[in-house]
Design brief:
Rossmann fold; GTP-binding; alpha/beta; 7-stranded mixed β-sheet; binds guanosine-5'-triphosphate; nucleotide-binding; P-loop_NTPase; 3-stranded parallel β-sheet; 12 strands; 24% strand; binds magnesium ion
Length: 366
């Protein structure tokens, strides 16, 4: 990301990565690095290493060293500062010179488009962009206008994995996010982190942030601190291990106690269903279903080893949370990170109304 100082590069990045607009100014020194994973098409994930450069002249020389290592560049200027537009024009030529013989692809961003006091003439910018063959987009990190197009997600849900050690929580996540299964035991230490994207309905993409907690008691004080900012919980037990089933109630109670006044929605997973075929079932389906209904959660049996129902378990939970938001059971609140939205409230409501209208039409047609 390149642009003059105070044009809002770090704010754009913060909105993109965290869904937040930081009100306080925090001047970048040198270069800041952020990582984001983006599914550019079904099954193709890109790891973005974003270098947020300092706009101050003082740091330009240092920034020049990282230029030949870059494949893309957002040229950001402030629509309310003509100088910042002149600045990116100059930098464009300089960047092209420095990266040679490699190629960098650019996008020109007119930032702070929410403001009325704009100094930069749109026609002039568009002319400049078309001369260079660079796409131009106007954006606002404050209101999320267009940054949403860059983020490609409208909601972020935090989901926590719960259950005794070795029931297969990490294995389920590995299967879901990487389609991998490892036979060896690799117990989680503290908390691990995974990301996945899911389109819950056409045009509504959810970024799922998974907190994979360690089932071992000795990590409980660490893992407990993650309960409060979760909106979904996968309660996992091993179908071949009765004790892990009996402990589900305890996991459930512990989370419920700590998330007040917020709501966490659960799915109960009878895991390692491949063991059932081998005659190792220690928990009946009816018994598990009874517990699930006591907890107000759907029940599903899955296996990370064979891949059976793993995707379905995660998607069941994600859609349940999404429905919870639509019907008001879950509310987005300041200071709570269980759900974040990159869309302004008006857009969310509009989208919900549209999808409800579409559903009504569908049922009328029947
Ligand atoms: N048969 C079978 N074994 C599995 C399955 N999933 C995981 N395992 C095995 O169970 C063991 C423990 O799996 P993990 O995913 O590490 O368990 P965990 O719940 O994350 O454990 P902690 O991190 O200690 O809380 C590993 O040896 C896996 O290979 C499954 O679906 N079927
Ligand atoms: Mg684990």
């Amino acid at each position: 990301m390149i642009g003059g100082n105070s044009v809002g590069k770090s704010c754009m990045l913060s909105r993109y990565i965290n869904g937040h607009f930081p009100e306080s100014i925090n001047v970048t020194i040198g270069v800041g690095i952020s990582i984001q994973i983006l599914e550019v098409e079904a099954g193709v994930k890109v790891k973005l290493q974003i270098l947020d450069t300092a706009g101050h002249e003082l740091f330009w020389k240092a920034i020049c060293y990282s230029l030949p290592q870059s494949s893309g560049c957002l040229l950001v200027f402030d629509l309310c500062s003509y100088n910042s537009f002149t600045y990116v024009k100059q930098r464009y030529t300089e960047v092209c010179d420095r990266v040679r013989p490699y190629t960098v692809l650019f996008v020109l961003v007119g930032h702070k488009c929410d403001r009325k006091d704009q100094e930069v003439n749109q026609e002039e910018v568009e002319e400049f962009a078309s001369e260079l063959g660079v796409p131009y987009i106007e954006a606002s990190a404050r209101t999320v206008l267009s940054v949403m197009d860059l983020t490609l997600w409208q909601y972020q849900f935090r989901v926590i994995m719960l259950g005794d050690s070795t029931v297969g929580k990490s294995s389920m996540l590995k299967r879901y996010t990487e389609d991998l299964f490892l036979e060896c035991i690799n117990q989680t230490v503290g908390v691990d982190f995974y990301v996945h994207f899911l389109e819950v309905e056409p045009g509504v993409r959810v970024k799922l942030q998974f907190w994979d907690t360690a089932g071992q008691e000795r990590f409980r004080s660490v893992t407990r601190s993650y309960y409060r900012n979760s909106v979904g919980g996968l309660l996992v037990f091993d179908l071949g291990n009765r004790k892990s089933f009996e402990n589900v109630q305890q996991w459930y109670a512990e989370v419920c106690e700590r998330v007040q006044p917020y709501t966490v929605l659960f799915v109960l997973v009878g895991h390692k269903s491949d063991r059932v075929k081998a005659g190792e079932r220690a928990v009946d389906r009816t018994e598990a279903e009874r517990l699930a209904s006591q907890l107000g959660a759907p029940y599903i049996e899955a296996s990370a080893k064979t891949g059976h129902n793993v995707k379905e378990a995660f998607e069941l939970l994600t859609r349940r949370v999404y429905q919870g938001i639509k019907c008001g059971e879950i509310q987005l609140r300041d200071g709570w990170d269980g759900v974040k939205s990159s869309a302004p409230t008006a857009q969310i409501l509009q989208r919900i109304q549209n999808s409800e209208a579409a559903e009504k039409n569908k049922s009328c047609a029947c």
